[in-house]
Amino acid sequence: MITPGAYLKALRCGARQSLNDMAAAIDTVPHLTDFERAEWLERIEADIAPIDLTTLAVLSRVYPIDSAVLYELERHRCGIEEATTPLCLICGKTDRAKCTVGHEAACRWTAPPRRAGVPA
C-alpha cells in the first residue's frame, strides 16, 4: 500500500501538475513564496511534513483528495489497520472513480480493483 504523501503525489501527477503548478495555486498563512510552498508540498509528498486538518483544507483546494482514502492510508502507516482500497499508483484514483487523465489501461493498482456490486 502507498503512503499518504505518495497518494498526494500520484493525484498531482495524474492531474499532470508540477509541484510549482500546485504551489502557485494555493495560499498559505503566513504567506510563503512559491518556492517555499513547492518545498513544503515536496516534504508532504515525501511524508516528512504532516498532513493536519489545516493542511488538508489547503491542499483539498488543488488536489482531488478523497479524505476517506487519506484517512485509511494514515491509519495503515501508523499500523492501526490494513489499507484495503485499491489505488492507482500512477494517478491516485480509486477503483470507485473514473480516470481523469484517460489512461485507464495503464493503471497500476495497489490491490486488484473490485468489481461493481461486490462487497469489500
Secondary structure layout plus pairing:
Layout: H1 4-14, H2 19-25, H3 34-45, H4 53-59, H5 67-77
Helix pairs in contact: 2-3
Describe the structure using short key phrases.
0% strand; 120 residues; mainly alpha; single chain
Describe this structure in words.
It contains five helices and no strands. It has helices at 4-14, 19-25, 34-45, 53-59, 67-77. Helix 2 (19-25) crosses helix 3 (34-45). The chain starts with a helix and ends in a 43-residue tail after the last helix. The model has no long low-confidence stretch (mean pLDDT 82).
Regions with pLDDT < 50 over 5+ consecutive residues? none
Q: What is the mean predicted local confidence, pLDDT?
A: 82
What letter string, H or E per element, gives the SSE order? HHHHH
Structural class: mainly alpha
In short:
The protein has helices spanning 4-14, 19-25, 34-45, 53-59, 67-77. The chain is 40% helix and 0% strand.
